[in-house]
């Protein structure tokens, strides 16, 4: 189903959540260096929930008729196809609970990508994916999209496992313009759903203004 929040500044395959006052307030809370861990987790989880709902909103549905307890038929819809989640470790694991809250007993795989010290390129270190992943829609989870290197590598891994590009939805809290362009241009058939696109990257490849290291703030 098409979403009213689509924003085509970065291409038709990029959806930026509407910048409501609520979303801006939640992002302000998690960006604040004074926010301690408990609040960081609570407010990040609220944004993650918005992203998961928007991701699910982009899955296909088919007509479904049900009879209500009033004895009247209702012409509704039901989801078509099966889904799974794949988190890019470690920060992406923070988004798993939000997905489970919306999709009971969803299968979730994991991918670990790190910089290869010799080549400096992103390298796959570990992947554990559902064996039938090629039949599923995949919600790929990573909260921070900086240069896009890990995300691009993770998508390559999914494609190597037979996932169709147009069945990948990448869910992300904060993106840099460089990262979002790199991902959406290289893989035009997959969708990226992000809560916010920030100004850029600093000299350490951190998103700026950003929120620092998401994994450290969520898990430590
Ligand atoms: N990962 C983070 O946690 N923060 C950034 O700013 C970039 C990548």
From TrEMBL:
Q: Which domain of life is it from?
A: Eukaryota
Domain Phosphoribosyltransferase stretches: 19-219
Q: Which GO terms describe its biological process?
A: pyrimidine-containing compound salvage
User: What keyword terms does UniProt attach to this protein?
Assistant: Allosteric enzyme, Glycosyltransferase, GTP-binding, Nucleotide-binding, Transferase
Pfam families the UniProt entry points to:
UPRTase
Q: SUPFAM superfamilies from the entry?
A: PRTase-like
The cross-references to Gene3D superfamilies, in alphabetical order and at most eight, read: 3.40.50.2020
Q: What cofactor does this protein call for?
A: Mg(2+)
EC number(s) stated in the UniProt entry for this protein: 2.4.2.9
Pathway it acts in?
Pyrimidine metabolism; UMP biosynthesis via salvage pathway; UMP from uracil: step 1/1
A GO molecular-function descriptor: GTP binding
**Family the UniProt entry places it in:** Belongs to the UPRTase family.
Q: What's this protein's name?
A: uracil phosphoribosyltransferase
Species annotation: Apiotrichum porosum
């Amino acid at each position: 189903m098409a979403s009213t929040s689509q924003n085509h500044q970065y291409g038709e395959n990029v959806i930026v959540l509407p910048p409501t006052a609520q979303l801006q307030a939640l992002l302000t809370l998690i960006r604040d260096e004074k926010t301690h861990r408990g609040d960081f987790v609570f407010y990040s989880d609220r944004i993650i929930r918005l992203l998961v709902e928007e991701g699910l909103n982009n899955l296909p549905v088919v007509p479904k008729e049900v009879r209500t307890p009033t004895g009247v038929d209702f012409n509704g819809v039901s989801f078509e196809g099966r889904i799974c989640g794949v988190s890019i470790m470690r920060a992406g694991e923070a988004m798993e609970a939000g997905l489970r809250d919306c999709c009971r007993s969803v299968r979730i795989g994991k991918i670990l990508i790190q910089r290869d010290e010799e080549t400096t390129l992103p390298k796959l270190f570990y992947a554990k994916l559902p064996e039938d992943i090629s039949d599923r829609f995949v919600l790929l989870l990573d909260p921070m999209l900086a240069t896009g290197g890990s995300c691009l590598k993770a998508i390559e891994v999914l494609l190597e496992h037979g996932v169709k590009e147009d069945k990948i939805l990448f869910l992300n809290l904060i993106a840099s313009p460089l990262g979002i362009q790199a991902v959406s241009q290289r893989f035009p058939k997959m969708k990226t759903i992000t809560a916010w696109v920030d100004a850029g990257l600093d000299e350490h490849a951190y998103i700026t203004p950003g929120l620092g290291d998401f994994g450290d703030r969520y898990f430590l």
